[in-house]
Design a protein that fits this description.
The chain is of the alpha+beta class and about 180 residues long. The chain folds into two domains: about 80 residues, Beta Polymerase, domain 2 (2-Layer Sandwich); about 80 residues, no CATH class. It has six helices and five strands; from the N terminus they run βαβαβββαααα. It has a five-stranded mixed beta sheet, sandwiched between helices. It is globular and about 45 Å long. The termini are far apart.
Amino acid sequence: MTAVTLIGSRAAGTATDYSDWDFAVEVDDFHAVGTALSSRLAALKPLAQQWDPLSEHWCYMLMLAGPTKVDLLFPAEPHQAEPSWVVSAETLVPIDRHFWDWFLWLTSKEASGKNELVSAELDKMWRHLLRPLGIGEPPSALDKALWSYLEARQAVEAKLGVEVPRRLEREVRKVWPGSS
């Protein structure tokens, strides 16, 4: 890594309690850094870590206890958005990680009054994550996304005979009033 810079709402002084920590990362060898990230960040004991499948540049997302969301953005490294999730026993845990990361991020956007962005992102979430789980229409609000996701995940778990660990969910739901 050649440089790491705090960016986003925390750098601008406009963060909410739920805002993530965004860092722009400059590297000489993206492949080497990208390959090493998971093991290098293990000491932080992330609840989840994943590459953002929808970002226009590579972005490594961490979810830590708190909950705290950390994004390592590589703005010099373009990324093509990946297709919608295909639900299977192998993808259900990664889908769950993606949902809770997205949900916490949207909670921060809602808290900062970015309602148009939240609405657009809920539609995007439906296309890429909720519809593949069998949810018939885009949620009109964040709470509807939460409850429809929980119901759909439970049905898919039963159908596939798998159970997604709930630790990440419990951590993220701490910030959502009345959701425990």
